[in-house]
Specification:
With 454 residues, this protein is of the alpha/beta class. 26% of the residues lie in helices and 25% in strands. The structure holds thymidine-5'-diphosphate and magnesium ion.
């Protein structure tokens, strides 16, 4: 029975329930309901400050000093994803699978930033300081003036941060933190929420940037509560496909910049190397382009990225044919296949369809529709696209090919990498690349089947 004024709030989704239960009826999570008292007794309320609203340009605005400049850490790919450096006083959550390279990335960020004069601290609850030192040595960061600590008790961490001023503090990881103000164990929803909250408040008060590492659970959620995501100013996801050395950093939320930028890294013996020109990485160069392959000229954030779409359309041995897609949206694949079937007469009924984006990149641009369709048609008709051809364009349900943004940048990047031809929406600019303009998907499919490119 709930006492008067008490509700049970799910620590995962925030839904309020009148009674305790083992499972949250709203999000299905187990053991997340915690009693939270609703109303405080009248005498317990803190005095208010009147709740006065202010204009954007309030009095004395001119005399205010400009906001402190962003901290350029020197790891350019990281800085770009943050929106041009780390904002002082901000809190960032770096989320990723265990072993993807979060600690490596942040040690590198700390080391490079410290070399550029920022006061940096790296606090680890997972590794001993000797271990971190050995890793920094291997990464060529032995001389960087970073303060290291192996600590999990929140009170000790906070005391340390109050004693000494820092510009950038890394906490690796938020799941190992433990506050003695709460009884729950480290990694529990209550602990993670309380510890993250306290660190975020401290960061804002003292104008230091804090980066929290968060491990991701098997189903892709940031472990513990999603509430950490709401507390921080930016959520960065660090991803990588198993078996590939590439690691991709993207912003899932950013109060200080765009969320469509990606940073590309390559994991090697000496840590993570920045990849300034990702196109060359995701292309399978050398040899003839096989049937079923199409190079997509895409844009990730502000940069063009060329990547190969690979399709295989094969007779199915099962009653229900398989549709498998890696690196692209399954719903989008179903749509493109439906348009190919209905408007272009390409049948997939008794055939398995596999679509793969090479290199472990995940593409979400609608401009990739035509590249996927070209790869599918090329495999289904067993006709390869020309070796030096890029493809882009959005497909509508009526089978029209719609123009996409930033055509010029796409074509320029293609030309830079030695591509001489493009299959693209009609009206696209010509230049160093000969554009075969198409306005209908049927036209594109016919050209692939007939090898008619002029
Ligand atoms: P790590 O940063 O510890 O991952 P996380 O903190 O996300 O759990 O990285 C672990 C992996 O990175 C490990 O499998 C080894 C690899 N690695 C390298 O290949 N080269 C290196 O120089 C370093 C430091 C790590
Ligand atoms: Mg780690």
């Amino acid at each position: 029975m709930a006492r008067d004024g008490a509700t049970y709030v799910c620590q995962s989704c925030g839904a309020a329930h009148p009674k305790w239960a083992g499972q949250c009826a709203a999000c299905g999570a187990w053991n997340t309901l915690v009693e939270e008292s609703q109303a405080r007794p009248p005498g317990a309320l803190a005095p208010t400050r009147g709740g006065k609203a202010r204009g954007l340009a309030f009095e004395g605005f001119e005399s205010l000093s400009p906001p402190p400049p962003r901290i350029a850490t020197g790891v350019d790919e990281f800085d770009r994803v943050c929106g041009g450096g780390v904002v002082p006083g901000s809190a960032i959550l770096l989320a990723g699978d265990p072993g993807v390279g979060k600690s490596t990335l942040l040690l590198q960020v700390c080391g490079e930033a410290a070399r550029r004069g920022a006061r940096c601290a790296y606090i680890s609850g997972e590794e001993a300081t000797e271990q971190i030192r050995a890793r920094a040595h291997r990464m060529g960061l032995a001389d960087a003036p970073v303060k290291l600590a192996a600590e999990t008790a929140l009170r000790d961490i906070v005391d340390g941060l109050k004693r000494e001023a820092f510009d950038l503090v890394v906490i690796d990881s938020v799941q190992t933190l433990w506050s003695d103000a709460h009884e729950a164990g480290p990694g529990s929803v209550t602990q993670v929420r309380a510890c993250a909250g306290e660190l975020v408040r401290l960061a804002k008060r003292r104008g230091m940037a804090v980066i929290l590492v968060g491990h991701v659970t098997k189903d892709g959620q940031i472990a513990g509560p999603r509430v950490v995501e709401h507390m921080v100013d930016a959520v960065l996801a660090f991803e990588g496909e198993r078996g590939y050395p590439f690691r991709i950093l993207r912003a899932a939320k950013n109060r200080f910049g765009a969320t469509d930028e990606i940073g590309v890294f390559e994991m090697g013996d000496g840590g993570l190397a920045e990849v300034k020109n990702p196109s060359s990485l995701f292309l399978n160069d050398g040899g003839e382009r096989a049937a079923g392959a199409a190079v997509f000229a895409g844009i990730e954030g502000s940069r063009p990225v060329l990547v190969e779409f690979q399709a295989l359309v094969a007779p199915s041995v099962y009653g229900t044919p398989r549709r498998t897609v890696v690196g692209w949206d399954g719903g989008r694949l179903a749509m493109v296949m439906a348009v190919l079937e209905a408007r272009c007469g390409l049948g997939f009924a008794a055939r398995d369809v596999y679509l793969n984006v090479a290199g472990g990149l995940r593409i979400s641009e609608p401009a990739a529709d035509l590249a996927a369709a070209a790869a599918l048609a090329s495999s289904a008709l067993d006709c390869a696209l020309p070796q030096a051809c890029v493809v882009f364009g959005e497909i509508s349900l009526s089978g029209d090919i719609r123009p996409v943004s930033r055509t010029e940048i796409r074509l320029k990047e293609a030309a830079k990498l030695g591509f001489t031809r493009a299959l693209a929406p009609g009206g696209s600019d010509d230049g160093a690349v000969a554009v075969t303009g198409v306005t209908r998907l049927t036209d594109a499919v016919r050209r692939i089947g007939d090898q008619a490119w002029d």
